[in-house]
């Protein structure tokens, strides 16, 4: 438990080390569907305290003001209801100090709780009836926000970001120069469809399953699934470029009703993270998200 907590906490610190200077923490996302990143730096720590208090594992707040300020995010599903929040956020030094205090509280809890100490008997999984379920929830919640925060960072202008020390190296398959007209089988994999037989499936998770789960994972339901086909791999950027070049952003039949409303609202013509290079008809794009964690002077990537 302590190793998992340390790893989770350190990943958050490493991710936020990519932000170049304190002002970047307060930049409002261009779509205004989320808070500035200062919120997401303090939010996971706040949830540890609030959930552990609800579970009876802590008797007092760490910082009562912060545990309200950093408690609730923006409803990202209401994409046309833009956030106009003008919160007086604390300084990053203050938020960092708060996180350090929360870290100490959670670490002491893990080290001293009778069900978690080395040699505690009998060894048993932590299930929903245990107060320690709140601890597992806080771990998984923080890991969800690693993805949330990474996406928000990719939406920032490139000068706001740098490669943190210890960041994972690029995969060897990453190109060293721009590829504006990628070829299937050379620049991205051929992605055939795999047929899947239909049948009856059981969905849901038993209540006594010995690992953490969110409330909507539990129960049991039988469903009939007709035969279908699925792509062998995730959709690549090369395939997505084919979709854009073929007019996929102009055809509502390829979109859900909600998705088409969003595309129309944003006047989107290609994915958010892509930047057009040259005349529109060439469909040449760069991807800032690939550049975001490079030090200055590194070669641009497609």
Characterise this structure.
- This protein is mainly α.
- It has helices spanning 2-16, 37-54, 66-69, 92-112, 133-154, 237-245, 257-266, 288-291; strands spanning 193-196, 199-203, 221-225, 228-231, 275-276, 285-286.
- A two-stranded antiparallel sheet has the order 1-4.
- It is globular, with a radius of gyration of 23 Å.
- A hairpin with an 8-residue loop joins β5 (275-276) and β6 (285-286).
- The model is unreliable at 289-302 (pLDDT under 50).
- The longest helix has 22 residues, at 133-154.
- It has a domain at 2-160.
SS field, number of helical segments: 8
Overall pLDDT level: 87
- Following the backbone from N to C, one meets helices and strands in this order, namely HHHHHEEEEHHEEH
How does the major sheet shape up?
2 strands, antiparallel
- Work out the strand percent: 5-15%
Anisotropy-based shape: globular
Radius of gyration, whole Å: 23 Å
Distance between the first and last residues' Cα? 40 Å
Task: Give the % helix.
Answer: 25-40%
Task: Give the strand line-up of the largest sheet.
Answer: 1-4
Please identify the structural class as seen in this structure.
Answer: mainly alpha
Weakly predicted, low-confidence segments:
289-302
How many E-type strands? 6
Task: Give a short synopsis of this structure.
The chain is mainly alpha-helical. The protein has helices at 2-16, 37-54, 66-69, 92-112, 133-154, 237-245, 257-266, 288-291; strands spanning 193-196, 199-203, 221-225, 228-231, 275-276, 285-286.
